Amino acid sequence: MTAPKDRKEAYRQLRERQAKERVRAREGMMRGEERYLPARDQGPVRKFARDWVDSRRLVSQYFLPFMVVVLLITWIPFPDQDFRTAVNIAVVTIGWPIMMVGVVLASVWVAWRVKKLAAEKFPGENVRGVGFYAAMRGLQIRKLRFPPPTVLPGGKPVPPKK
């Protein structure tokens, strides 16, 4: 690397180095490398919580797709007004509360279970907040989770991309 001739050249070189570092950090985060992860995702306890949630199919991970279906159903212009009213009542008074109760119960169970298992597996580590972390990860659609899952449902490792 040569020394910059003037201030503009120095700034250009600095921006190029920063851009390369950002690309390297983003690739490292997407691979799940510990040093590139944000502070909230670092540590063996958080890794355990991520893997525990990712290795299961939870009711709460279907919450967002369910909400899209509810929105679509309520927007469909049914020709019969009585049928439309019946569908809206069924969705709003039956489907929505059942899904909300399921999500709340699943989140509480995940938070309790992960915190208990993490405290047993990592006796000297701080497990504060790990239950909430796991419950929030369980609410996310699997393909949109960050860092990306490293295990498939059932506990098998994710196969490498070709």
The tally of beta strands, per DSSP, is 0
SS-based structural class? mainly alpha
| Fraction of helical residues | 55-70%
The biggest beta sheet reads: none
Specify the overall morphology. Answer: flat
Can you give me a brief rundown of this structure?
The protein is mainly α. The protein contains five helices and no strands. Helix 2 (44-54) packs parallel to helix 5 (130-139).
Description:
- With 162 residues, this protein is an all-alpha fold.
- Helices cover 62% and strands 0% of the residues.
- The protein has 5 helices and no strands.
- α2 packs across α4, α2 packs parallel to α5 and α4 runs antiparallel to α5.
- The longest helix has 41 residues.
- The model has no long low-confidence stretch (mean pLDDT 90).
